[in-house]
Structure formats: C-alpha cells, structure tokens
Specification:
The protein is α/β, with parallel strands linked by helices. It is built from ten helices and 15 strands. Helix content is about 35%, strand content about 25%.
C-alpha cells in the first residue's frame, strides 16, 4: 500500500517536498492545500492530486502523512491537527515559532503515537554529511575553529510574513537555524552563546553568533538576508590535523586540505550533488516509517535546535551571553 501524502503550502518548501514525494517509489501525493485555495491548483495538477483546505487534509481518511510547509507561525496549528487525526507529520524547520508551540506539537505526536519529523535538510547535504564523517573519523583531528555562513536575498520581498518577526523569527530562525542545528549535530550541545543582529530597510537583516563549547571548538555563524547575488552557503572547519572548506559558489564546492606527504595530496576536491537533498531526506523518512523506526530528526531534536535559535535571538536582543542547556 502506498504512503499517501498531503501537502500544506505551495511555496518553495511545499513545492519541493511535493515533487520529491512524486519521485519516491511507494509514495503518492493525494492532496495539496494553499491560501487562497486557487494557489494550490498548479501544484496539485502537476502531482495528480486534488485541491483541499489544510483542515480537510489533516482530517482526510485517505492521507497517511501530512507535510507541513505553511508559514512558521502556523506549524503548530496544522501539525497538531494532523497528529490528532492519526497522521504522521513532516514539518518544515523551524519546528515552531515558540518553544511552547513546539512542546505542544511533540506532545500531540507522542499521545497519538505518530511520527513527527522535522525538515533540517542540511543534515542530508553531502558537504555537511562528509564533514560529519570526517569529524567522527578523526581525520581533521580535534576541532578548533569553525566559521559558517548562509545568505539569501531579502525574502520579505517574496513572502511578506517573513518581515513580521512574531510570525517568522527573522533571519535567525529562517537561515541561521540550519547551521545551529548542524553545529549540534557535529559537536553536541554548546555551553554558551553570544549574538548580534542588525535590521535594515526593505527586509535586510544580518545576524552573527558566537557559539562556545567548554573546551573546543569556537564557532562563528553568520546569516544574512542581504545577498543581492542570491543564495550561498559556506564553512571552514579547522582541526589540529587539517581543514575542510565548503563554498557553494566555488566550481568544486568542498575541499579537504591537509599536510602533504605520503598520506595523500594537500587538497582533495570532491563533487557533491547528484540528486536533491530534499529527495534524499523524504526517501529516508518514508523508509524509516515503513520499518517502524524513528526519523533522523524527530520532534524533540527539532525542538532543541529551535531552542538554540531562540537563545541566539535572546542574546542579540539583550546584549548578554546566554548560558545554554538543551531542553530534555
């Protein structure tokens, strides 16, 4: 029996997840929702699906999993409704706009005994997965200094709700959260955070966070809604035995650098993307659901990354160092 999917939202994320589901054997996109409903017509036609409201999709008998790709402030409303109707939920990041909403979502999924997965897709990008493998293998030695960057154009020009921080969480929850989640995945929970941010006119926004661990590494993360040339990502990961560099704008977007000698060349460039990480992410989730296994990023894990993002915002707003303890 196929996994029958309903998609809430037809923006970048909703469209990407719908097209990814279409490419997975054993999955079927059944219904698509948007506000207004007419905005769902084109994507629904592409998927061979019906147009329905979010409420109808969450309650429908012929849907097994609901993709929540609506604006951040609506995640809790839709995910909780789907879970209470016995549906598995795949929710875009951030899990919610507030910690209270995220906790309610985790509770609803637990009580209904359904899967709640969170779309921290960077964990499926090959550059970041390769970094995790090299760190775990000790290839780079002990991590010392990490710099990470992620930038995009001022997204408020495309989707006005992003400009309302109460609804979106601004550049920290939209962009920086990807790298905050990655840092937790790579190194575990940090000990303290210090952050600054700047807001300009026309939706321009910039944030910089220093993430400290009790020993090492020291991590600097920047996020920007001021990239006039378009989306970009990058990191430099320095250890006492080597350095890994990623730049999405480079011809070869990831390179491993180490001392030359019998062990190998000084630099090893690696090609990466051969299929979209969004497809890899959903295929992994659907396979885990079929096997009765938890998702790679479940509700509590998404909640912890959200909490770290909210701590960055708190530090930036107060000018104070925030001591970090992850929610349990």
């Amino acid at each position: 029996m196929p996994l029958r999917v309903g998609v809430l939202g037809t923006g970048f994320a909703g469209s990407m997840h719908a097209h990814s589901a279409l490419a997975i054997d054993g999955a079927q996109v059944v219904a698509v929702a948007a506000v207004p409903l007419t905005d769902a017509t084109s994507l629904a036609k592409e998927c061979g699906a019906r147009v329905a409201s979010a409420e109808e999709i969450c309650a429908a008998d012929d849907i097994d999993l609901v993709v929540v790709a609506t604006p951040t402030y609506l995640h809790a409303q839709h995910a909780i409704a789907a879970a209470r109707a016995g549906k598995h939920v795949f929710c875009e990041k951030p899990l919610a706009r507030t910690l209270a909403d995220a906790e309610a979502m985790v509770r609803a999924a637990d009580e209904a005994r359904v899967t709640l997965a969170v779309g921290h897709v960077v964990r499926f990008f090959p550059e970041y997965r390769q970094a995790k493998e090299l760190l775990d293998a000790g290839t780079l030695g002990k991590p010392a200094i990490v710099t990470m960057t992620r930038g995009n154009f001022a997204v408020g020009s495309a989707r006005g709700w992003y400009l309302d921080e109460d609804k979106s969480g601004g550049v920290v929850l939209d962009l920086m959260l990807h790298d905050l989640d990655t840092v937790r995945w790579w190194f575990g929970e940090p000990s303290r955070i210090y952050a600054k941010r700047f807001k300009g006119s026309g939706g321009l926004e910039y944030a910089l966070a220093t993430i400290r661990y009790d020993e090492r590494p020291i991590v600097q993360i920047e996020a920007s809604w001021a990239e006039h040339s378009g989306f970009r990502t990058g990191f430099e990961l320095r250890g006492d035995r080597g350095m890994l560099v990623h730049d999405s704008r480079a011809a070869s977007p990831i390179a491993l650098q180490s001392p030359s000698g019998p062990a190998g060349p000084a630099m090893m460039a690696t090609p990466t993307l051969h299929e979209t990480p969004y497809l890899v992410q959903l295929r992994d989730l659907f396979a885990r659901i079929a096997r009765g296994e938890p998702p790679l990023v479940d509700g509590p894990e998404g909640l912890r990354s959200l909490a770290l993002g909210l701590a960055v915002i708190r530090s930036a707003d107060t000018g104070e160092v925030v001591n970090w303890k992850a929610p349990q």
